[in-house]
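Quick illustration, no need to memorize.
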Amino acid sequence: MDEITQSQLADSAETAAGPEFMASRELAVQLDQVTARTERYKNLLDMPRIKVLEPIALLKSLGSSLQHIQSLSVVKVDSAKTANQIVTMSREGWYVDNKMGVSRPRTFKAYIDDGRTAEAEALMVEHFTRRCGDIHAELAAAYPARRAILDQAFAAHASGQYPLSIPALLTQVDGICADALQASFFLRAKRDKAIRGMKVRAGSELALAYLAPLDTDMSISMSESSRPPDFSALNRHMVLHGESTDHGTLSNSLRTISLLNFIAQAIERDPPEIAPT
C-alpha cells in the first residue's frame, strides 16, 4: 500500500472518532483481532462437514470481541496541547482541516521543533493536495453564489497559475465571512465580530482549540505597521496591494486553500465532528 493510501485510511479512521475522545487506534487493533479470529471460518461453507458448534462459536467469538471493543477505556484529548500544535501550523501559514484529526498537527509541530521544516511542509502539501478537490466541492455547495469564482480560482490552482489562484481565493475568505457572519475577516474594524461568530459555533473544547490561531497575530492578516522588517510570509495585504511579487508558488496556493477551508469550517452552523486521534 502506498503512502497516500495509508494517509487516506488514517484520516478516515480519525474522522470517525467523536469530538471529545480518541479510541480509533485501539478500535483498529481490536478490529484486526476480530478479522484474525474469523479468518479460519472464511471457507466454512465449502467444508464437506460442518459442525453445528462452529458457527455458534464464531458468533460468540464475534460478540465477545465487539463487547471488548465497546468497553475500551478512552483517553481525553489535551485541548491546550492541541491548540498549541495548531498555532504552530498557523505560524508557518498552514491552517488545520477538520478532516486531518489531531495527529497531523502533532506530527507537524514535532517536525518544526526538530528543525525538520521541509518534512513539515511536505506533510501539509500532501494533505491539502489530496483534499483540494473535496474542499472545492464543499465550498461550492455551501456558497453556490460563489461557485463561478471558486471554480475559476481552483482551476487556476490546478493549472499551476498560482499568482492568479492566490488573490482570487483570498478575496473569498472575506466573501464567505460577509455571507455567513455579516463581518470581515481581514478588515480590522469587523474582524472581532467575525471571530465571535466563529467561536459561538464551536460545539466543544476541542473545537475551540481548533480555532486557536484566531487569537494570535496571524501572518496572513498582519498590517503593514505590524510586519517586522524581515517579514517574508504569505500576507493578504502584500498580495492584493501588489507589494509581493514572489508569492506565486504551489505551497502558498495550498496555504490559501487551507485558510479558506479553515474559515469555512469555522463558520458552518453544524460543523463536522473533529477527529481527536
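The longest strand covers residues 21-22.
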